[in-house]
Amino acid sequence: MSDPKTLLSIDNVSKNFGSVVAVDGVSLDIRENEFFALLGPSGCGKTTLLRVLAGFEAPSGGRLLLDGKDIARIPPNRRPVNLMFQSYALFPHMSVRANISYGLEMEKLPAAEIRGRVDEMLATTQLSELADRKPEQLSGGQKQRVALARALVKKPRLLLLDEPLGALDKKLRGAMQLELKRLQDDVGITFVIVTHDQEEALVMADRMAVLKDGRLLQCDTPHEIYEHPADRFVADFIGVMNFCPGKAGADGVMTTEGILLKGTMPQGLATGDAAVAAVRPERIHIFPAEGIENRTGGKVAALAYHGLDLQLHIQTSLNDKPFLVRVTADAADRRPIGVGDAVEIGWSAADTRIFKD
Amino acid sequence: MAPALAWLAALMVVPCGLVLALAFFRRGIYGGIEYTFTLENFGLAFDPLYAGIFLNSARIAGTATLIAVVIGYAAAYAIAAAPRRLQPVFLFFAVLPFWSNYLIRTYAWIVLLNREGLLTQLLRWFGYEGEPPSLLYTEGAVITGLVYNYLPFVILACYAPLARLNPELGEASRDLGASAMTTFRRVILPLTLPGIAAGAVFVFVLSIGNFVTPALLGGGRFQMIGNLVYDQFLTANDWPFGAALSMALIAIMMLLLTVQAMAAERASGRARTAEGDAAHG
């Protein structure tokens, strides 16, 4: 992706249902060949936006430019866009093969070509053995693959996936995340996935958009969004974050206790405004070394063992809620910590994010 | 169990058995029954004259079924597409005629269709001056009566599968490039066919044996098999022949109902295995 070309340009798109604004002036570009995630809590408008892209809802305003052509008024059956439904929506009266060839039959392709392309797709999705089964004879994971194959066989410019892994159990979901990513690489089709699971988005997406109440909050790579969230909501929604409320100072947040937590001030925050200093659990050091700018004392309130790491809940005077701190199992072995122990914690100014509160 | 079976035997099996037995006896010269075994009643039932009435009944019942299915399916489709909270209201209105008596509903059509009836008056009101159309006592009137009376069955039978249908199936079909028409033909219709079949068999079976509607709206000029049976028992006093005709009619109905029940059983059997698989998988 040396030269990212825009495939779909969502230009100030809105969608109202009566007086309810489901999508509110969203603008973002989806690039050729990327795995893009629309992420947000339920009711944020991500599914409505997906249905607008698929053509099931006409936008109330704005333009949808696919390869530079406005497709906002083109019906779903004439768009080079396919949707994989959350419920899979497999045709129950048709075999796996008939489900997959349905979309090609609609293109009035020669029977031999349909057969060849379906066979190829069955092989790609490891469904060849199941070609003659009916959907009701398949497991959840198999149904998911049929739904994917049915949409992919049409070679759309854009494949939309509505919570594609939502119906699978946790273990299978992890495997399918990688599988989907591999498949996307193989077929070279742009994927837009809708999910409420931030972990899923972080793992799979090349870039992602975070939506809330129909508005776009941030659109960037998972790494950028995780490390530099645009606002407090994004910081809280993606991953885990510790927040310390206070007032904005010149180079940090002054807590109610009068401790200055240093960090880079964002634009548009004036001295004296309500602000929060935020830090990720994995950026906090227990018994910090010299030179670490932000530090405080606390008491271990709870301790959770996760195998790979140890999660400590440390009550300090900076916040009502205890700080969540992650310590690697290795470090915990070197210096055992128990509930009730007094500890000092600290983190550097570079790891501190400051938001308007 | 036992009292229920006794009840069924007393009220269903014994009367039917009696009618069946009657069919194998000879008719007495002055009515009544002569108790000698014969098969000639069944032979007579296949006589071209009576076979023609069977065919005519089947044709009328078939036409009524076709019309009822088209109208009923469309109505059920509209109800299933209405907002969810309004659906029970529409269904209530669809079955409302059942709250009145079948005879009264049929008489109502006489009021509507007769030469000085509501339809004629309506035509006059629009400025029609000529001869009043003769609508009553036609085959059309009989079919209208049958369709009207049995339409609610079709609506209910078609509504159930339509309401259960996942709307995303239609959307998936559209998404894969199908037009609205193709989506209906290849996805919606096949998946709601069991409801159509159930409704159609119901209308056909009830129509082919019907004698009230042809008598009242057909004016006795359009003999259906039900009228013929009625006549044999009550006018011609030929009980054995009437019994043979009844048996032939019951045989046709049973055959249709059995085929329909078997098809439905296969469909629901498939659905059950699917649930079982899902539970295990």
Commentary on this structure:
- The complex is a heterodimer of chains A (357) and B (281).
- Chain A is an alpha+beta fold.
- Chain A has two domains: 222 residues, 3-Layer(aba) Sandwich (Rossmann fold); 117 residues, OB fold (Dihydrolipoamide Acetyltransferase, E2P) (Beta Barrel).
- Helices cover 25% and strands 34% of the residues of chain A.
- A six-stranded mixed sheet of chain A has the order 6-7-8-3-9-10, sandwiched between helices. In chain A, strands 13-12-11-14-20 form a five-stranded antiparallel sheet. In chain A, strands 15-19-16-17-18 form a five-stranded antiparallel sheet.
- In chain A, a hairpin with a 4-residue loop joins strand 12 and strand 13.
- The mean pLDDT of chain A is 92.
- The longest helix of chain B is centred in the C-terminal third of the chain and has 42 residues.
- The C terminus of chain B is likely disordered.
- Chains A and B meet through helix 2 and helix 4 of A and helix 8, helix 9 and helix 12 of B.
Q: Kindly, what is the distance between the CA atoms of the first and last residues of chain A, rounded to a whole number of angstroms?
A: 37 Å
Order of helices and strands of chain B: HEEHHHHHHHHHHH
**Structural class by sheet pairing and helices of chain A:** alpha+beta
Structural class of chain B: mainly alpha
Would you tell me which CATH topology of chain B applies? MetI-like fold
Q: How are the strands ordered across the major sheet of chain A?
A: 6-7-8-3-9-10
Global morphology of chain A: elongated
Q: For the CA atoms, what is the radius of gyration of chain A?
A: 24 Å
Work out the helix count of chain A.
9
* Rounded average pLDDT of chain A: 92
Task: Supply the number of helical segments of chain B.
Answer: 12
Number of strands of chain A: 20
